[in-house]
Predict the structure.
Amino acid sequence: MSTATQGNSIAITASNINNGPEHLLVLVHGIMSSSSDWTYTEAELTKHLGKNFLIYASSSNTYTKTFSGIDEAGKRLADEVMQVVKKTKSLKRISFLAHSLGGLFARYAVAVLYSPDTSTSGQLGDPQNCTMENSERTNFSKGGLIAGLEPINFITLATPHLGVRGKNQVCLGLL
């Protein structure tokens, strides 16, 4: 099996389709960061989780792109995740591990990628439309799917899901 987990580049060989990783773990960095911030974590997770996991460090929202807003960055992340899912036909499950502002991006991306009804395949914007191999994947329509995959974990670290307190917040757009 040959997969590379460096940003947007994922090399897939024919052997991946049949016996490749089944679980996609998306790592999402925080403000003014890049996928290289996950290098150590990615290596350790790969070592401990094994070949059944594709550890993918997101690179669609690097550095100043984190200032474009949660909606824009979340859509970019959703597009990036869909590209990974399209290229890796063996995937069945998905998890997210995000830090700080990246947790808000990931939360938005999950909402964009969510599909409550798996029987609507073929509609525009339907994550199932991206891969016809999804019919071979286990059907978890009870709780819906994320990018056509069964959601397992959504973990955020130091993410301000409830906003931030204080009257002295600085709008970064004015700097």
Summary: The chain has one domain: 14-158+166-174. Helices lie at 14-19, 39-49, 70-87, 101-113.
